[in-house]
Amino acid sequence: MKIFFARFTGTKNIFLYSSLLVTLVFLITRAQYFVFYPILVLSSDSASYCAAAFDILNFHIPVFDIRTPGYPIFLSLIWMISKTVYAVALAQSLFTLMSAIFFLWVINQTYRSLTLLFAISLSAFISSTYYLILEVSLLTEGIFVSMLLISSGLLLLALKKNKNSFWIMYSASVAIVILIRPAGIFLLAILLLIFIYFLFNKYKLRFYLMLAGPFSVIIFCLCFYNYLTLGLFTISPFGEANLSGVTVLFMEPSQEYPQFVNDAIKNTLDSIARTEINYVRNSSGISQLYHTFNNNFYRQVNLTENLMLADTNLNFVGIQPIIRKISTDAIKNNPKIYAKFILSNFLFFFNNVKIVVNYYEQLSNILRRSYIEKKYIKELESGRWRQISSDKLDNAEIHLFFKKETDKQNELEYVDIRDDGEIYLKQTFLKSLYEVYETAYNFLFRNFIWLILFSAVFVFSAYYLIKSRFRDVDAFVPFIFCVMYITKAILVSLVEVSLARYSFTVEFAVYFSLPFLILLLRKNKTNALITNK
User: Containing H/E element for 424?
Assistant: First the structure.
């Protein structure tokens, strides 16, 4: 077996075989959705992306007050060809395969002997239930994760090949990641690390310019566009809405606020159980704190709506200074509660890698919300502000689109919706095949073993990096992947609850631990041989 593995990994066709493995896993995990169960995957956030995309399609000047332009532009490009959610899901799924094969190609160019192991790791990453569900959803995760993987591949190429073109492309890719989802700003920590690496290795000025230039130009253009359309020089004004979700359990009225602001805060707090408000103030149980913060985070929407109802002249952008003041005051007045929020969410970010969910149960629940309960159509019909757009005229077009897409769910041949509301997904060969795969996958990949491997890689890579005085590129590569995961955990914990939806986007860093650990152990063995000589 050892001889066979050596021959297999040494063959010139290793990239082909590894690509076939990733493609096979891709087909096993995706085929049943597109062929038999193309269930509409919407979210309360979906409408806001549609609003900006429809503005682009209708040749209106889009306003990015709620969302950044990356995903709406992607949607508009797809909808120029076929204006359906199915077309979006298919495009996003194919983008996943393309990004995985691209990253595998990068590995074949840089760490060829580890290509097969990276193929296994990539297969694990792209086949988690969270990945499968969110990949076909009308949400940024559908392309954000793939773009993040492409960006990581470009970084690896730049570090190992050190060509001007790769550094320029990597810099631009970081900006594109942020344009798709502002949460991508956690990559600023990676840019800073690379600058430090440049300093220690005495890189020439042109490398600094190539790393900072394209990124700065793209981000500046977005901020300038927002200044022209919103009057705000910012990547996105929506970030402060997340901070109000963080502080919703401990924000307080103040004599400094106008009466309508105090009324909005009071109405929001009145919608929360007093026991939960008291719990975050007086208790320290990490698990219960996390769930309490999680259960109430999206009451930020209630606060925003209460403020806008109190003064009809205010749009979403207009209330941002108010939300900023409320949130920052809450943190200043209750730093211990904010610290509890950060700690509990930071720890649960790492806990997510072991959470197991059933794919078909998730599909059934999604269908129940979108088709039986018609949740997202009712949100549009309610007339309430639901994070859609400052322009309420967008509601009508989105409502028509959602209704048309929802009605199509009645045509699903392999989905049986019974009179009692129960949903039954008919058995097929592909469904049976996937169920076997999912059982094996959950056993092998949804556990703490991967976090142990991740921790080992982080420690070993940091050790070799420090020992080499920040000059060892083969230690810097795994170290920077580990830092990517950790900085995402920190960012999420500061401004959001650590849902699996946010942590799965960087789980590739965890699953890459196995090949990276082998890389580092080889380095240790090589160093030992050199020392003995």
Answer: strand 423-425
pLDDT in tens, 130-142: 999 999 999 999 9
Residue of 271, 267, 290 whose CA lies nearest to 279? 290
| Mean per-residue pLDDT, 145-156 | 98
The pair of three-digit structure tokens given for residue 333, joined into one six-digit string? 């007045």
Tell me what pLDDT residue 305 has. Answer: 82
Q: Which two tokens stand for residue 21?
A: 């493995």
Residue 317: pLDDT band by 50, 70, 90 thresholds? confident
CA atoms of 496 and 342, how far apart (whole Å):
9
With H, G, I as helix, E, B as strand and everything else as coil, classify residue 117. helix
CA dist., res. 76 & res. 56, Å (int): 7
CB 171 within 8 A of CB 213: yes
DSSP 506: G
- CB atoms under 10 Å from CB of 113, counted, come to 16
**Nearest residue to 286 via CA among 239, 242, 339, 241:** 339
How far is 407 from 462, CA to CA, in rounded Å? Answer: 54
Distances (CA, A) of 171 to 203, 215, 233: 16, 5, 21
**Top-confidence residue, 5 or 405:** 405
425 SS3 class: strand
Strand partners, 416: 424
Supply the DSSP symbol for 416.
Answer: E
Output Rg (C-alpha) for the chain, integer angstroms: 24
Burial of 392 (0-12, 13-18, 19+ CB in 10 A): exposed
The dihedrals phi and psi of 148, each to the nearest 5 degrees, come to -65, -40
- Mean pLDDT value of segment 94-118: 97
Report the alpha-carbon distance of residue 323 to residue 56 in Å, rounded.
29
| Positive or negative: CA dihedral 493, 497, 502, 507 | positive
Q: Would you state the torsion angle of the CA atoms of residues 180, 184, 185, 190, taken in this order, to the nearest 10 degrees?
A: -130
Decide if 95 contacts 26 (C-beta within 8 A).
no
Distances (CA, A) of 496 to 139, 238, 342, 503: 17, 13, 9, 11
pLDDT band at 318 (very low <50, low <70, confident <90, very high): confident
- C-alpha 292/C-alpha 307 separation (Å) is 24
470 SS3 class: coil
- Provide the 3-class DSSP secondary structure of residue 415: strand
**Cβ-proximal residues to 20 (8 Å cutoff; 6+ apart), any chain:** none
Q: Band the pLDDT of 390: cuts 50, 70, 90.
A: low
Give phi and psi for 421, each to the nearest 5: 90, -5
